[in-house]
Every structure is written in structure tokens, then in C-alpha cells.
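Hi L.,

You mentioned the student needs an example of a multi-chain input paired with its predicted structure. This one should do, with 1055 residues in total across all chains.
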Amino acid sequence: MKSFTYERPGTPAEAAAAVSRTPNAKFIAGGTNLLDLMKLQIETPTHLVDVNGLGLDTIEPTPEGGLRVGALVRNTDLAADARVRRDYAVLSRALLAGASGQLRNKATTAGNLLQRTRCPYFYDTAQACNKRQPGSGCSALDGVSRQLAVIGASETCIATHPGDMAVAMRVLDATVETIDAKGTARAIPIAAFHRLAGDRPEVDTTLKPGELITAVTLPKPLGGAHIYRKVRDRASYAYALVSVAAVVQADGSGRVAFGGVAHKPWRVEAAEAEMTRGAKAVTARAFDGAKPTRDNAYKLKLAERTLGAALTEARA
Amino acid sequence: MKFDTPAGQNPIDRLKVVGQPLDRIDGKFKTTGTAPYAYERHDVAANQAYGYVLGAGIAKGRVRGIDTEAAGKAPGVVAIVTTLDMPKLGLGRMNAANLFGGAEIQHYHQAIAVVVAETFEQARAAAFLIKVDYVRAAGQFDLAAVAASAKPVPGDSGEGSGGGGEDRTGDFEGAFAAAAVRFDETYTTPDESHAMMEPHATIAAWEGEKLTLWTSNQMIAWTKGSIAKILGLPADAIRVDSPYIGGGFGGKLFVRSDAVVAALAAKAAGRPVKVALTRPLIANNTTHRPATIQRIRIGATKDGTITAIAHESTSGNLPQGKPETAVDQTKLLYAGANRLTAMKLAHLDLPEGNSMRAPGEAPGLMALEIAMDEMAEALGMDPVAFRVRNDTQVDPGHPERPFSHRNLVGCLELGAKTFGWDRRNPKPGQVRDGRWLVGIGMAAGFRNNLLMKSGARVRLGRDGVVTVETDMTDIGTGSYTIIAQTAAEMMGLPLDRVVVRLGDSDFPVSAGSGGQFGANNATAGVYAACVKLREAVAQRLGFNSADAVFEDGAVRSGNRTEALAQAASEGELVAEDSIAYGDLAKKQQQSTFAGHFVEVGVDVDTAEIRVRRMLAVCAAGRILNPKSARSQVIGAMTMGVGAALMEELAVDTKRGFFVNHDLAGYEVPVHADIPHQEVIFLDEVDPQSSPMKAKGVGELGICGVGAAVANAVYNATGVRVRDYPITLDKLLERMPDAA
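Structure written out for the whole complex:
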């Protein structure tokens, strides 16, 4: 871990200003991902701006009938909130499928959105990785890729977004609220929040430098059956091979997003028109253009069968 | 004490303390943080500095230069030692790769520098400033690709589980060709990591030319000898102390780089240095269980009598390394007049493969016991009945050698009855419970019992407390407790009147912990020392030692009773002895046996596999402490589930290293993966093994578990997977339709 300076600003705008004006600065909240990455010198910030004292830790109803989740609401609290469990169960279930109880107690809503990939080559500083060190190459392309992306990947990077929460937020059409150094707020639809790797795999999101997440807003409840199905090699404490977040209505229509398959939570709205025709039809459309490796081709079949399981569960 | 005739009646047979399910005597220290592990020995040497090991970033080649200028100027840095500062150091016992020194890189993350600083964080930050100039060389990293070039080789796991290269009895090829029912399949097992909780760690301190290592190691005397050889020191200049060990599983049998670089760093720094290998280094810097490719052929008559059996295994290693002895159990487990076992070893430039819990048998049974399941099905026989049909009471390759005691059939039959085997549907894919396809499977377990010389010293103090000293280690197994039980039983004391001190090379040399030989041999060594102490006590008290009864803190003979402490009233009594073995194990085969039964559920949609029930029935001689023995077996069963379903060091065959080198990437079972586990020990003794009449049990628990899980998955789904680990991607294409 490189030495770094540290400050605790008083307001969100001050925090954004502090990160904007200090070269190589980062926000820190729960630290469950950033600190690990700093120990391995995958992240090497020279200045940390601690946002934990800024409030931003409440869940409030919105005038539109939704919920506004503060950036610093801990994953445990968000998953346990009675309104979330009642109206956005897919989100609660996704959170509880992630990490461990101890990590969820620390991890925040904003930090969860910003967690970095778990590609093993990203984690080994002796290996080429365009996400860690732009221009160095991608060892995963011809390396071990069983966990990695099957769609939306590029020639520069086949990493996946490893999270669960964001997959549920994507299916709910959440909005990410931010503030910048000038105090200007903006709202980013979750669909536009995470980037595909393209030729800039080192940039995970569309946040501007210094821009601070203040909240995530959930639109008014969708109703329907809320399913989060996470498939993994062991029963707990593992990243998804494939996950499915689905909200299915009584008439069989609905929405679905997939985790563990792409650089971002993967949702193809056009594919949802096929929901009433079953999992095979939906996944054929959602994964049109997929380019799996030999190691991870199974994910296409798995996505189809996992969605099938989710639809069965929704009907039950 | 020479043990060369079967044990008769002795004081252990009273079983007042031995054989009782007693709590660990070190449990209170472990649970209160007062059992310090190597890295936590803050009090043993003042002014400790922190060392951080830098591992090579290439798999093969050499180091042309190391630039330490920036690192040397970094805050807090005390010293830097690089591999170019000295010639290649020699190999320690059973090391295949050099641990430090010289320019050659033999495997990824080989130690090439250690940075010493005032804090761990400073040492780590400085290590990242070191610039290394490598010359890369091409290497061989893919076992499947080089298997054809593998050479026949004799093998020895280093734990006594030895075997020749090719071993033949009768005419295998002829009998196989003539067999009414023939079976021929190939299985693979992956590289696995020990993944113990406590990383390899050492504090090193020099006093003049004397070196002390506070470390975490299973084999104290081996370590002392290896360090002497590697560093060119006389053995009596070295002390090794390892009283508490947070798991080893074979990964700490031999000296590793933490101990060597700590010693070099302490010398360079001129003060004590502590070094722990970071988690990302452990997979590639230390040893692992090597991957295997195993071909098994079985020929049988229509009624299921095996007439021909062959087991051939290919593994890879560095040039100095040994093969994985995966064929060993096949020499002994089942009858059959015509037999072939053979091993081949290929050159690989991956990190060195070496012993991991039940080396040989663990991966060997993962293959053999699927083959037995497949053969039973081909014969239309019940898998339990097929194994019972082919039981043998003699070493099938040397029929003049009986087993000392063998009740595999008892394990299988009691296991089948207890588990409800008769409710298994022999037709796969038939049982459904909600979204789960349910199946049950079984396998035989087998692991040899190894005899190793083992010594101990016992002291009777004026306060009547008996203190045992031996360099035996407790790697979480319960050695402290069973040794205390042994001394308490022998001296007629309650457990709380015995103190046990372990893991110090100043104590008598013991068997150490490995190959499931620790418990029987180390307690037998304590038995021998106690026999001597009893003689000394009897003499001091004026008793004839043959008549004296040691009981309730007193010694009694005829009408006279004296307090045991009375014997030490004029000063401490000390006795030292060791158990040494004659040729009993040559005349009769000593082995341990188990029946493993597993029920799994396989998700009908996703093919996720979850274990629902497990049972092990074990026959391993006298069980010294049923509570700690059960802990050993359920831990081993858990490890067996890991091997069956998830554990795999993923090889980057282009870059030559294990990529999933942390505990997020290398998955082992978590609590949610492990259901209720039941363990039954058959009530038996084996007088051929030692005066304790016990045998090993700590590795028996893993042997066969993987195949029992695999067979249950087949029973649930009808999909046979022969490549471990059995992950859902290997089932998915062949899964029955979900509807």
C-alpha cells in the first residue's frame, strides 16, 4: 500500500471538490473493495476523501412513489428495509446473495455500484491487464476465462462486473444521483451508468472525475414476482457464474437482467418482449452476438436454464 | 522401546482417559487468543522487523538484474536481500525447487527478494518499488499436452506412502482380454492447494552463529535438518519452535521460503525478522497436490469377481519432483489375481507438486471408486455388494501377507444400513424433491497406517504433575490432548495433572504430523517414555515395577499405596525413550478402512450440486479420542467435498501459473455447503500397530469422499463426469430436461 493523505470533508460538494482538485484522489466509503486493491497496489490513490461522515444514509420515499436510497446506506440495511423487501424484493434478494454478512455491514450502496472486476489477471500485477494498466494487454483473452464475460466484451477486456445489487437495480430501472465539485446535481439512468469495455476498459462507469454518488432512486414499485437467482460453484461467498434478476407479472410479461456475463449488468429490453414465449426465446435475443471463450461458453446455456428456473419460480 | 511383537495387555487398555471423548486441552488457549501462532510471537525476540517476500513474475527463465535503489530509499526500509546476492541455495528435504538464491527462475512466484522494514506496510510498499529485469524462457505447463512424454518412474510421497513405478502380479493383459465384463475409462484430477488458514510464517533471530526459527511447520526435525543443509549450518546451531500451527495439510511438511528468507533477512538486518507469505504467494510459491490423469481397467466374471485390475497414473512435476502416487491403494484394496499398477511422470515447469492430505490415495480413490461404481453398473450389481464380493484379507500382490486387521466389509455394511442405502434407486435420474434431482452414492475409503520412530521425555515433578516434552506438532488435530491422555492413563493421573509441551527442536524427535502417522506413533513414543518413568517411580518407591498399579494419583502394590508425587519428593524424575518398530508391518499389511455415503441434490435447471447428507464409517484401530478423531474425519469429509465439487488451481497453460491464487478465486466449501455429517468408528483395536493399538484416521476421512459425491451426482442425474472438480458446466449439456 502506497502512503496516502486523508481528509473528511463536511458536505458532498466539498467531497467532490476535494477529489477534483487533488490528483489521484479517490472517495472511500465502506472500503471493502478499495482497501484490498490498495494493499495489492492495483489501486494506488495518493489521497483518500472519506465520505462516511456525510449522512447520505437514509432511505426516503420519493414524490413519484419510489424510494431514494442514500449513497451510504449499508447493504445490510438496504436489504432489510421493510419497504425494499415488500416492493423491491429483487433488490433485497440480490443484496443478500452477495458477499458475507460482515462485508454487507460495511459495504455501501454507492460503493457496491463501483466495485471493480474480479478477473484474476486484474488481481495479479505481474500480468498484463488493460483495465489495471491501460495498454498492457489482456491476459484473460487467451488465459483462464471460465468466470469472464460472454457478451459486450471487446478485444481489450473480457472482465465482468462482479456485483449482484447493480443487476437488480438495472431491472428496476434505478437512477444514480450525483453531485460534482461545483455542487451541480445530475441523474444518470442505471442503464447508462456502467460502461462496456470498448477501447477504454480502465473506465468502469460514466461518472466524471470527482463526481460523487449521493443516492440511488428506485421508481415506483413494479408489482409482480421478484426473483433473484444467483448460480455459483459453492452455496455462499462466491461471485455469480450467471445471475438472473427478474420481475415477472401475472400475465407472463416482465423484465430480466443478467449478472456475471458482461462488463455491466446485462439487460436487453427488446428481448423482454419474448418473456411470454419462455426462457429460450428471451436469451436467444438477449445474448445475440455473444462471443464466449471456450472456457465460458457454458454461460449461454446456463443463462437460459437459470431464466427458465426463474420463470418457473415466478409461476409457482 | 522396540516394538517387534504384537501388543499384549497394557495400562492403556484400562481406557479411563484414553478413548474418552475429551475436550481439547489447548481449546481454551485457542479460543482466548493465548495460543500464539508463529507470526504472533511478539515476546520471543525484541526489536522484530518485518520482511516482505517478492515473488517472480515469470514462470521460467532467469533474473538478469534487480534494481533495489528506489526500494532501498523507501521509508522504514532496513535491509533488502535479493536472490542475486548469493548462489543458488541447496534443496531441503523433499524440496523440488530451490527456495532462494541464484538467477534461475524455476516457477512463478519463486522468492527473488525480501525487503525488511520497520513495519509490514513499509516493507510491502518498498517491495513494489523493486524493478526486476527478467529473461523469459519457454516452459511446459499443460499436463494433458505433455502426458505423452511422461516417463515411467518409481515414486515415494515422502510420507512413507511409497510405490514402485510399475508393479505386476499375474498376467493382467491376458486376464483382461479374457474377462467376461471389461471396463476401461480415464479420469482426471486437478491441481489443488492446501489453503490452510494460517499462512507459512517464520520469525528468525540470530545470536552469533546460532539461529532460532519460530515457525509453523509439521515436521520439526526435518525442518532443522533442512535449514542446516540449505544455509550450511551445523544442526546444533539451529533451534526450531512451532507449538501452534493453524493447519498444514502437508503444505508445511517441508521447509518453505518463509523460513529461509527470514533467516537471511535477519542476518542482513542484524535483528530478528518476521516473514509471512501473503495469500497470493501461497498457491505458486509453496507446494500443491499435483494434477493426475488416471486410466483404470477392470475385468470381471459375470458374477462380479474381479479377475484383472489395472491402474495407471500420469502426473507432472519439476525435474527434482516426485509423482503423485495415485495408484497405491489399488495394490491393496480389492482382490484379483492379475494386476498392474504403473506411474509416469512428465516434466512441468509449474510450481512444485508435493504432499497434500492423503497424497496418492486421495486423488487415486477419486478415480478408482468411480470406476468401481461404473463397473458395478456394468455388471448389474449393487455397488456395495460388488465391493464386498471383492474384499481381500491378504495383500493381493503378496498373498502370504495378511492384513493385520481389516474390516472394510463391516464399514460398508454398517454404512449402508445406517444411511438407508436400500432406499437408493439404482436407476439414475429418478428421484425428485422440488427443484432438486436427488441421488446417493458411496465409495470405499482406504489409507495405509505408517509406522515412524517417535520419542518423548516425561518429567514427574515434586507437585505430582507429569510434563511431556516431544517435538511432535499439533496442526489442529488434537495432538496435545491425546498425548496428555496417554500420559495420564500410563501414570494413573487425571488429565489436568499432565502438561504437554510440543514443537520444540530441543525436545526428543517425534514422528511429527503427516501421513496420518502422528497420533499412533507420537502417543506410542509417550507410552514408551512413560514405561521408563513408571520403572523409575517404582524403584524410587521401593515397588516391583511389574506389580505396581498406577491409579488415582497413587502407586499401589499389594497392601501398600504411595502418592505418585512422593516419588519426586527428593527431586524431579525424568525419563526419555522412543518407540522404534521391528518388522511387524512387513509381515502384515497395516491399513485403515472406511465406507463413505453421500446424498446430493442437483438443481434440475442450473445443475448446481449441493450435498445433503454425509456418513463415514471408519475402521482405524483404537480411537484415542472419539471427539477429536471425529473432528478430523468431518474436516476431511469437508475437504473431500471441496475436491469433488470446486477445488481447482486453474492453470494458465500459456503463462505457466495458477491464476486463482487467493481464497476468493480458489474456492473451498463454506459452511452453507456442508450439511449434517455423521461419523461412526468401528470398535476395534490393532495390536500390530503399536502399544496404543491405534492407527491413523486424519487422512482416512478424505479418502473416497470425492468419488462418493461423484457417484451420488451420477445417481441423481444419470450424467457421469470423470473430470474433477464436478462443476455445473460439465453437467449442463447432458442434464435431463428441466420440465
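You could point out the following to them. The mean pLDDT of chain A is 97. Chain A has ten helices and eleven strands.

Best wishes,
N.
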